[in-house]
Amino acid sequence: MYFILAITLVFASSYGQYSVANQLSSAGTAKRTVNALLVIDVQNCFISGSLALPHSPADVIPIINNLLKTIPFDLVVYSHDWHPSNHISFFNNLNDRRQYIKPGTKVPDQPYQVVTYTGPKVETEQMLWPTHCVQNTGDANLHASLVQTTLKGEIFHVRKGIDPDLDSYSAFYDNQKLYKTELDDILRQRNVTRVFVVGLATDYCVAYTALDANDLNYATYVVEDACRGVTNASVQAQIAYMKRQGVKIIHSNEVRSLISGAALTQLSFSLMLAVLFVFYFTN
Ligand SMILES: [Zn+2]
Asked: Do 162 and 147 reside in the same domain of the chain?
């Protein structure tokens, strides 16, 4: 009987791993839950530099570090806002792009206002920011306190906003969705099914990344206390919008149970199968 129990446990445990706790893909085939942490733009510019956020952005670093040091994500991706100095999003470049300002629209006289450009690539309403995260400057470096190691799995870095004429809040696409970054390919090649999004800023790059992840059919969780925004009003609006779209908003202390919960479900299913098989063979 013990021999049968042992064989059954081995069988049930491997079967359980690939069944109950796993999600069904759109094609209907079983997929193991694979977890990625997306660390969005935890760069000097947004913490203490040229576009420092107002609500203690450095406070997210120990929270993110704790996740990195204690949760076994299958992979971790760090995104970097990475602009050339002539980037479309900089207020200081408004004059150089004057020929593209749409006639009859308001011309901003300071940063944090929206301009309508007719080109050079596409017509776009562009929020004008202070010059920030210029490529290969200290301002664009990841913050020195941010942990860049994982308990397991691989680490990737994705740079965005590189095209002078396109802004890119999301780590997946530019704002016009003309081009993809390599992020979706990285996640798909490693069979990622679920992403946890942390970093800066909640109402822009975190929200855009999470909404795209959700659209791309990753189960998407934003870890709210591990993010900081630009303004409270737009943070609240984006959180509400993300929830309506199906993005889960959670606290950092829920991440562990979500990941180990799946493992526990796998184990309980395996044990249940084992008991059923033993009962069948011994009666
Ligand atoms: Zn930017």
From this structure: yes
Give yes or no: residues 107 and 191 share one domain: no
Asked if residue 240 and residue 187 are part of one domain, the reply reads yes
Rg of the chain taking only CA atoms, in angstroms? 23
Centre of ligand 1 from the C-alpha of residue 8, in Å: 55
Determine the pLDDT at residue 9: 45
Q: Is 41 assigned a catalytic role? A: yes
pTM of the full predicted structure?
Answer: 0.84
Residue from 74, 81, 160, 227 carrying the catalytic annotation: 160
* Mean pLDDT split into 10-residue runs, the chain, 283 residues: 47 40 44 93 97 95 97 97 98 98 97 97 97 97 97 95 98 97 98 98 98 98 98 97 98 94 60 64 63
* Residue 279: predicted pLDDT: 62
| Ligand 1 ion: nearby residues, β-carbon < 5 Å | 81, 161
Q: Is residue 231 part of a domain?
A: yes
Is residue 15, in this structure, part of any structural domain at all? no
Q: Rounded to the nearest whole angstrom, what is the distance from the C-alpha of residue 277 to the centroid of ligand 1? A: 58
Range of the domain at 175: 30-84+131-255
